[in-house]
Design a protein that fits this description.
Elements (H helix, E strand, L loop, with lengths): L2 H25 L2 E5 L13 E13 L3 E12 L12 E2 L2 H4 L10 H12 L5 H12 L5 H21 L1 H10 L5 E6 L7 E6 L4 E7 H5 L8
Parallel strand pairs: 1-3
Antiparallel strand pairs: 2-3, 3-4, 5-6, 6-7
Helix pairs in contact: 3-4, 3-5, 4-5
């Protein structure tokens, strides 16, 4: 292949990529419907009726930015939770995609967290990828917020799987515990406890957290 042919091929690929990106952006805002079968009330086993139908925004890597008309069902007998709230049921297809109380999908949260903490990318870079490659427009502040939320979810998963982590380390015959504290000028010191052979972080937090024994490594 000649250099001119290679140049023409690259230009063609760039053109296709540009069209693909425009197609993603053109599909943004598309209205979809989410209405599950009513089913039965989990308390009285009676029928559920439609309580309301409303339109809200969703943003996921898989679907881009879209509008969803979601139907919410309520117990016909008006059963209530201990909190006093009516027993309702949202569309499963929506709640499995979107983080509670947010328009952002779990996949976007994981993407932001992985890019920030595993690949050490800047917020602006993550934001640009979400916008141009996936049709999900966020601010840099929202990228930071999602990254912190990712860590909270990861911490919860870590605690849930603590037993399995202990078992794996026991099968290793134990582990060297490496403890390191790092910090930047003007910021708190981050203390990390690492299972050396596995390179697993068992616990991390600011130094004060360990000093007052609030932090409890899982192994």
């Amino acid at each position: 292949m000649s250099l001119s042919a290679l140049e023409a091929l690259r230009e063609h690929v760039d053109s296709l990529e540009g069209r693909w990106r425009r197609w993603i952006l053109d599909a943004s805002g598309m209205l979809v419907a989410a209405c599950d079968e009513p089913g039965e009330c989990q308390q009285c086993r009676g029928p559920m009726d439609v309580q309301k139908t409303y339109v809200h925004i969703g943003k996921t890597l898989k679907h881009g930015t879209f509008q969803v008309r979601e139907t919410v069902h309520v117990c016909r007998a008006k059963c209530r939770h201990p909190s006093g709230a009516l027993v309702t049921r949202r569309a499963i297809s929506v709640i499995e995609l979107l983080i509670p109380g947010r328009t952002i999908g779990y996949d976007a949260m994981v993407f932001a967290g992985m890019q920030r903490f595993v690949y050490h990318r800047q917020r602006e870079e993550v934001r640009d990828d979400l916008n141009h490659k996936h049709g999900v427009e966020l601010s840099t502040g929202e990228v930071s917020d999602l990254s912190r939320l990712f860590l909270r979810y990861l911490e919860t998963l870590h605690e849930i799987r603590a037993g399995a982590i202990r078992d794996a380390l026991a099968r290793d015959g134990g582990y060297p515990l490496q403890i390191d504290a790092t910090g930047e000028d003007g910021r708190e010191t981050l203390l990390v406890a690492l299972a050396g052979w596995r390179r697993w972080v068992l616990e991390k937090g600011d130094a004060a957290c360990f000093d007052d024994r609030r932090a409890k490594p899982v192994a």
